[in-house]
Every structure is written in C-alpha cells, then in structure tokens.
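ESCALATION

Customer reports they have been waiting on this structure for their group meeting. Please prioritize. Original submission:
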Amino acid sequence: MLPVTYQETVDLMHRRLDGLLPDFEIQAKAELVVAINRLKRERNALILGHNYMEPALYHCVADITGDSLELCRRAATAEADILVFCGVEFMAETAKILNPSRKVLIPSKKAGCSLASSITASDVRRLREQFPGVPVVAYINTYAAVKAEIDICCTSSNAAKIVAQLPGDQVIFIPDEYLARNVAQATGKQVIFPETNLAEVMKGSSSKDSLQKVFIGWHGKCEVHDLFTVEDIRQVRAQYPDVVVLAHPECPPDVVAASDFSGSTSAMIAYVQKVAAPRYLLLTECSMADNIIADNRDKEVLRLCSHRCPHMAQITLEDTLAALQEDRYEIHLEESLRLKAKRSIDRMLELS
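Update from on-call: job pushed to the front of the queue and completed.
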C-alpha cells in the first residue's frame, strides 16, 4: 500500500531512495508522488512502470512493475478504469491491444523507441514475399502495425523458448539484429539478412542442408544497448576483477559473450537478488541499476550511466501527474488493427 500523506511519502522515499536521490530532490518529488497517488485512487487508475523508470516513479508511484512480458500479462487482466503506462509508446499500445475497454494513457508523446521505429508493416510484407511460408517472429519492441503483420511476438526473456516451438528451422526474426544473433547462437542457428546473396550461403552445402537452421534478421538496434562494448567490460574488470557482468540480450553478441550472464531486465533483477557476488555490473539502462540498488542495499551494483535511454527519460513524475489530470496522451487503435495485433501477442502468451 503506497503512503497517503506528504510526511508518510517523504519517510518512504528516504527509506527507499537515500543515497540515490539527494534530500532536496526527495522533498520536491514527494509532493508530486502524493498528488499522483491521490489522483489515481480518485480516478480508479493503475500505473504500470517498466523496470527502466526513474527510482521515485518506480518505487513510490507504480502499482505494477516489470519487464515487457510481465507488464503485458498484467495489463491484460487489469480492471482499473484507467491504465497509465510509464514506459515507451509500443508498451502502451500493447496494453491497449490486450485491454481495449480501458483508457490507456502514456505520459509523454516523445517516448518512442529507436528499435520499434526501425521496421514498418510494409517491411514485414516485403519479407514475407521474399521468404514465403517462413514464420515471422517479432520482438515485442515493435509498433501495433508491425504486430498485426506477424505470426507471433516474443520478448527477450522468452525468445529462445518461442523459436524452439515453431515448425521448421527457418524463422524471420525482427527487428533486433543483436537479439536475433544472440538467440540464434543459443538455438544453433545462423543469421542471414534480406540483402544476403543466398547462393553464397548455399556454397559448400548440400541442397538438403542449405538454408536450414536459419534466422532471417533485420538491422534494427536499441540505441542504448548498442553503445556497450567489450572494452567497457575490460575496463571495469581491470578495476574490479571480481565483478559479475550482466548483459541484456539487446547488447552486441561480443558483449554478451564477454559477460557472465545475459537475460531480460527481470532476469537480471532476479540474478542480483539470488546469486551472491562481490559486485555486479549491469549493461542496460542506468535507471534500472538504481532501482535494483534501492531493493538490495546489501549488494554493490555498478552501472555505466553515460548510456541512458532518451525515450524512457521522457516519462517523468510531472508528466505522469498531467496524464491523470488531463487524460493525456490517450492511446487509440483501429479495432481491425488491434485484433490483428492481438493474435500475435495472444500466441506469445500461450507459448510462454
């Protein structure tokens, strides 16, 4: 139960966020937290917060927190009149796809995603024409129009499991190039791209074996995870030889290979909670490390805060309050599009 009064809120924020936020910032943000929590009770609103949200919002405002898969599941069954999605636009779209009778709001119109923007519905249709009959799997980090054109969605936490359940060895896996490469390596497949000369791929293989166990990928990337390098890991290990490195699967494959563990944001959180280590380095959005620190005061968590998501940073306490006050910005989807997109998400949830 989140606190009601200003003093209760300040006390909670000091308990949870001391060392992460200075006192003056806690004092200022507490007023916003009180106003948001009061208004969401009055309006029967539910706030969903992605693991990348800033600490005050994540720990003191969000009713449900998690990665994309967990928030999908919870959004589908939410009974509040209003869902305020503190995440990026494709996540809010997913909540609307799964729960169309609820009003879904996103606090900022600028909360986009470089990865979701890297592919369009027409791109998917062209891929289907180029590789007829091959099932299309799309990372959940895509917009509704893309989800409506594919066979099934996946997340970073269930991608390998989803792929393993599909018929045949060929899969169109979009749009994240690095996630495709990392999952392909884990499932014994190679990755080619639409521009690949298939004759070259077939060289040296029998006709029976050619183009088997293949991911047809796409050149989409998360602009944040793309920044992490093996040199980053080397420098941190030089300073902290006993550090355990955790990398998100959206990181480049050489970075994942140089790490000790790779998994979704929720898997990273669980790893820090359950695995004893002298210290941890998280190669993902910096705010998540702050949120883990708040929940694990006995653990030393390192982070590279020069790598931050400019889109997630658009979701602020101020804009979350404005969303509740003014019903901004509401997600609208055409029903025919919503139903097509829902099929791919439903199938993912069934196979997860």
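Sent to customer with the following note: The two ends are 30 Å apart (CA to CA).
Escalation resolved.
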